Structures are given as C-alpha cells and as structure tokens.
Amino acid sequence: MKLELELHLIKAYPSLYAGVGKPITESLMSFGFECQDGWFDILDKLSRALTDLNEDVVATQVKEKYGTLHFYIAGGSDRADELIDTAEDESAKTCEVCGKPGKIREACRWLQALCSEHYVEWALRKLEV
C-alpha cells in the first residue's frame, strides 16, 4: 500500500495501529500494510468500526493471503471478529489494485482479487515470468 495511505490509517486510528514501528519480535505491523491500495476503503471502514467498539484491540498484522484480506488482532470481542470477517469477505469481491468490483482470480497457481482490467494485466505478467 502507498505510504500516504498507510500513514492516513495510522494517524486516524493510532490505538489500533500501535504496533507500527515496533520491532518484528513485538508486532508484524512493522512490515506495514501488506496489500495494495484497492483495499484502502475496506481497511478504513474496518478500522473505524473496530475503534468505535471502544475495546482494547490492536492490529498485529494486515496482509493479503490467498487472494483476500487477512486482518489479525490482539484483544477484542466476538463483535470485533465479526467485523473483521465481514471486511475479509468484502475483500474477495473488491479489486486489490483499484477498489472496483472484482473477484478472486488465478494465474500460475497464484490467487488475487481483481477486476477484469487488472486481471488481464496481472495474468499477462505472470505468464511472462
């Protein structure tokens, strides 16, 4: 994700992203947000909802895995888990690159949530390798 988008999330939800900048032995958020810009709106909405719960929730890792968003936390309630599940489900229908409607696509045994336009570009790059 672009640094400016990451910084927006970190500044808007400092308690949720308290692990950013900590050593890798303490938080995998030291790697930043390991996904592309298209999921920014999903992450912003999720971050706001988790913060609004007023629970002691800290993100420990945010990444793409098997084509969908994976958002790991320390703390939180069943409601926090439900919010995360909803966001992860939404990511499977949202292009990770641009945020337009998409679906899980496959190229060379690699999965990614993409719109049709970005799927063609991505598949051609994968086939060139």
Molecular structure report:
The protein is of the alpha+beta class and 129 residues long. Helices cover 39% and strands 22% of the residues. It has 4 helices and 5 strands, in the order H-E-H-E-E-H-E-E-H. It has helices at 3-12, 40-52, 78-91, 116-128; strands spanning 33-34, 57-65, 68-75, 103-107, 110-114. A 3-stranded mixed β-sheet has the order 1-2-3. It has a two-stranded antiparallel sheet with strand order 4-5. The mean pLDDT is 93.
Number of strands: 5
Beta-strand residue fraction: 15-25%
Order of neighbouring strands in the sheet with most strands: 1-2-3
- Biggest sheet architecture: 3 strands, mixed
> Structural class, judged by helices and strands?
alpha+beta
How do the helices and strands follow one another from N- to C-terminus? Answer: HEHEEHEEH
Globally, the shape reads globular
Cα Rg = 15 Å
Low-confidence stretches: none
User: What does the average pLDDT come to?
Assistant: 93
**Helical proportion, percent range:** 25-40%
Distance between the termini: 23 Å
Count of individual helical segments: 4
